[in-house]
Write a structure and sequence with these properties.
Elements: E1 9-13, H1 18-33, E2 42-47, H2 53-67, H3 74-80, E3 84-88, H4 95-112, E4 118-122, H5 129-138, E5 149-153, H6 161-174, E6 180-182, H7 190-200, E7 214-222, H8 231-256, H9 265-277, H10 284-290, E8 291-294, E9 296-297, E10 320-325, E11 337-342, E12 349-356, E13 375-381, E14 384-393, E15 401-410, H11 420-430, H12 440-456, E16 467-468, H13 475-482
Parallel strand pairs: 1-2, 1-4, 2-3, 4-5, 5-6, 7-11, 9-16
Antiparallel strand pairs: 7-12, 8-10, 10-11, 12-13, 13-14, 14-15
Helix pairs in contact: 1-2, 1-11, 5-6, 6-12, 8-9, 8-12, 9-12
The structure holds 6-O-phosphono-beta-D-glucopyranose.
Residues 223, 242, 350, 416 line the site of 6-O-phosphono-beta-D-glucopyranose.
Length: 490
Amino acid sequence: MPESKDNCIFVIFGGTGDLTKRKLIPALYNLFIEDRLSKNLMIVSIGRRDYTNEYYIELMERAVRQFSEDTFSAEKWEVFKERICYNQFDFSSDFDGYRLLDRFLRSLDEKHDTKGNRIFYLAVPPDAFETIIENLKKFRMIENTASWERVMVEKPFGSNLETAQNLNENISKNLPEDKIFRIDHYLGKEMIQNIMAIRFGNSIFEPLWNHHYIDNIQIISMETIGVENRGAYYESTGILKDMLQNHILQMLALISMEPPINMEPESIRDEKVKAIRSLRLFNHQSARENIVLGQYGKGKEMKAYREEENVSSDSKVPTFIALKACIDNFRWGGVPFYIKVGKSLNDKCTKIVVQFKKLPGINNYREFDHTKPNILVIRIQPSEGIFFQINAKKPGNEFLINNVELDYCQKSKYSSNSTKAYERLILEAIRNNSSLFTRWDELQYSWKYIESIEESTSDFELSYPNYSAGSQGPDQASLLISRDGNKWWT
Ligand code: BG6
């Protein structure tokens, strides 16, 4: 991972929230102790709670001990904790709080030479984004020309196309696009970044990366956990907005886009947008044939979705989706992209599976009758790696063909709960590298796609729950793919 030694203040709105405890402070701690950040970095956490600085630091210490267990060192913490300040005010109504915040940040600039550089991280619900940005602008915290300011925002960005558009319009009145860093933590994952390396760094893949040679692509993301304590949030998002609109479509864009003209952020994002725009939208008929929705019911010692805290007892929110997507361009015409993603399933894994076409059967090559298709699997998590299936002769006197697996397992030092993705994203935002963040037009087209799924499935007669927690999902998901003579690579 690179480093960024720019002096700056990292301001967190939502400083007492879960994300700050689980990811942001542990990630900043790791970057700091690995010497990837300037020693002059300052962190200002803003929250409504009436905590003293000491108490806040104590809470953060507990969080780092828990969520960064492997790297925690009491000695290093003593140095790091000096960088943290807690600032209490209600960012939704206390406008004087912004004035005081500005004054406080300037005083830190003087003491710590942070040069007016700021990252504002909005770890707050999206309905607070506008107010915060408006006030940052009003109190002149995002217009210092001699220094830099960037605003990082968490997902979800809007709740549908219209709200996302409104939000974007309002935000962009006060903040230019190049200062907005919209987070999709999947873009910070090691193997997601590896997709471009695998595609564009290997002459055995790139020439074959099209409908002539690829039979189908699968994007699979399964979780064993349910919605845990996030019932209220999940009721307003469901699997479509929680996973598909962002993480899954980002993976799909990277695996299917045209080669960018160079590796500059805008060039990469231009190609991702084109891929997302080329997704064929659904109508009622195509949705019935190509989309399966699900919601988990009770499993062995596992709760049903409707029994989760803050979830309605007759909720119609899906926790699972399987679909067959089509990308309407010359590269991918006719290649199905199967997507399967859900909660409370029997496995925790995220992977992209590229299945190549089989060679045509040749009458007088009987020995080759049982060859398997070549398969490339990019394993995102929990183990990171690349798996490639080829055909080769079985050792021995007879000429028999066998499939052989080339399995490269990247030594994955990090658990899937690690803060590595956040570390990378924070670092890249400080370095002003926006390629790992989503641009507005990517989001806009992904919302269009999600909207077409929502509208076209609105007449589905669903009887939820339709899969048990801990199972492989609804049976119809297997039918969706087997109908085409394929199977999920799970
Ligand atoms: C988050 C979703 O964005 O991604 C969660 O809100 C989901 O519901 C999580 O569990 C999955 O992330 P990861 O990194 O564990 O695959």
